[in-house]
Amino acid sequence: MRLEQTESSGKPASGRSAYFGVEKKRRMPLGGMSFAAEKLLLEKILQAVGNPPVQILLWNGLEIPTQKESTVAQVLIRDLAALLKLFFNHRLYFGELYSARRVEIQGDLLDFLEAVFRCRPLRRANRSSDKLLLPFDEIRRNTLAGARRNIRHHYDIGNDFYKLWLDERMVYTCAYFQHPDASLEEAQLAKMDHICRKLNLRPGETVVEAGCGWGALALHMAKHYGVTVRAYNISREQISLARERARAEGLDGKVEFIEDDYRHMRGKFDAFVSVGMLEHVGLDHYRELGEVINRVLKDDGRGLIHSIGFNFPRPMDDWAERHIFPGASPPSLAQMMQILEPYDFSVLDVENLRLHYARTLEHWLQRYEDNVDRVSRMFDENFVLAWRLYLAASITTFKIGKMQLFQLTFSRASNNRIPWTRQYLYGAECLPAGLNNGNL
Which H or E run contains 159? Predict the structure, then answer.
């Protein structure tokens, strides 16, 4: 996928002048000291991101060529304050400055991001700038009130916006591509069946879901696997649409959508499932989530958690956590164990679907760009650029392995009603009736 930098209308920008509207005039000799300071700041910034093959151009015409043989893009920094912000914390301020057009990219955005992310050193916690941002982190903690505030920031910006670029069922999590050329609709349907088979669902069983999105998985489980589902979500927009869909499909007696926090789950269930919710829980609430799962699962209960994650514990990108997903904190596998180990749950299987998520995001970004004019009419230019950057950066982080997508299944330690092999995941006899007869 090629993603050329565009003007706010969403149309490809033409000509160098659209980006580099500066005259390359050197300052008078009295400005030499200023040039030296700016050059030093730029060199420090490039060093901090691993000296990627990009060329930097300042508002005053100062140009810093890459040390590499060829460049993938040019970056225009439009003012001194922007330069200083990048020096202080490029992980936070690059996204803010890009969205405000104070930093602009000439070239393919995906190529630029991949070049930078491949060079950028691995993020470590406890940097001095991390400590300065601690007060902001406290504001976004996932307490009962904080979680609602954080979720509404991202998910309650309007169902019409998400309808523009998600699949027809509005599944906003990693799809499962059984073959590379599958459509997004086919892959999201395959993902839901993949999860249902992993849970080994049987007709008449009960399932509790934490964080149900717009209800696609809950409705799919009830319709095609014959289970009864209770699904919890604190996004008002999502719950409202999910209830409408349940009524329209005649499933409101089989699926109950509850606008409430997962911490208030009640009842006993055969299976627990959470897809794309753990990222919003927060590490300091993992033991609390484990207690909830322990409380609601039956003695032979089993569960599945599907989550973005890291190979080792580290913070989420500063800009994305502040502006796109406030309060988000993807875990490492070791951190996910903090949910299960205190309650003696047994891990049955772990699968990493990161390349599937990269492909999913490619579909989302293409659909977003196809509808960018409509997005522009819904929101301002800052929003349009921020979401373009978010989707493009997400593709890149999964493609190069900076982020992972874990599906983890577990059960009670004493539960022996578990599959003997993995054949149950792929055997045709295990597919729901609707898939066998083509009715899905």
Answer: helix 159-163
